[in-house]
């Protein structure tokens, strides 16, 4: 079974209190290390009075870049459990930072591992996941007589109709799932071979993913 390429739709926040310590988890999709660093800097500025800002992130189509930091917590108690949550949920291009406001009660190594792990899990479960879908962009040119009756079929058949241009003929720009093997055959049948089909590019899109 192929594991889907999952990420987060938007930045999200969740919070929990454990033995008087406040754990504020923030997760966000990222597109570069600069974006990750900018987000971490904004968190440290906004919560400058907090004790720690452990984080982890993965970046790249094959997670070529992986970073984690305990941010002053005992080694292995915070960055690693946060990273484990990212990888176990098969997330990509995602950063999670958990800000801790110390409440005066020490949690011990095991307690910290659980606290940071559950904080990261909670914030991931709060957000909307998206899955990367491989799409192909086509232009379809048709005579006017065929364009109108085909419009409704196209709307239902493709992922999206991006653009419709009216000139000497009607040209639709559409996105179709790349693995849709029957699209060209169906289009040819619907138009009795009168459609002029041109592949423009292969692209990716992120669409909502149901857990």
From TrEMBL:
One BP annotation, GO: regulation of translational initiation
Pfam families assigned to the protein according to its UniProt record, in alphabetical order: DUF1949, Impact_N
Top-rank lineage group of the source organism: Bacteria
Entries under SUPFAM superfamilies matching the protein: EF-G C-terminal domain-like (SSF54980), Ribosomal protein S5 domain 2-like (SSF54211)
Domain Impact N-terminal: 19-124
PROSITE patterns, per the entry: UPF0029 (PS00910)
GO CC aspect terms: cytoplasm
Domain (UPF0029) ranges: 140-194
Family: Belongs to the IMPACT family.
Name of protein: IMPACT family member yvyE
């Amino acid at each position: 079974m192929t594991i889907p390429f999952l990420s987060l739709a938007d930045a999200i926040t969740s919070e929990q209190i454990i033995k008087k310590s406040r754990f504020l988890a923030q997760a966000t999709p990222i597109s570069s290390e600069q974006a990750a660093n900018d987000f971490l800097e904004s968190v440290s500025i906004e919560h400058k009075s907090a004790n720690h800002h452990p984080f982890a992130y993965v970046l790249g189509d094959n997670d070529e870049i992986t970073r984690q930091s305990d941010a002053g917590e005992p080694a292995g108690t915070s960055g690693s459990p946060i990273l484990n949550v990212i990888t176990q949920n098969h997330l990509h291009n995602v950063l999670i930072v958990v800000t801790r406001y110390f409440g005066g009660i020490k949690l011990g190594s095991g307690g910290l591992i659980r606290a940071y792990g559950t904080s990261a899990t909670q914030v991931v479960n709060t957000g909307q996941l998206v899955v990367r879908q491989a799409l192909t962009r086509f232009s379809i040119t048709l005579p006017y007589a065929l364009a109108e009756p085909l419009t409704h079929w196209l709307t239902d058949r493709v992922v999206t109709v991006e653009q419709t241009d009216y000139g000497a003929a009607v040209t639709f720009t559409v996105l179709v799932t790349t693995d849709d093997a029957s699209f060209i055959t169906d289009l040819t049948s619907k138009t009795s071979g009168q459609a002029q089909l041109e592949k423009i590019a292969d692209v990716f899109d992120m669409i909502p993913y149901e857990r």
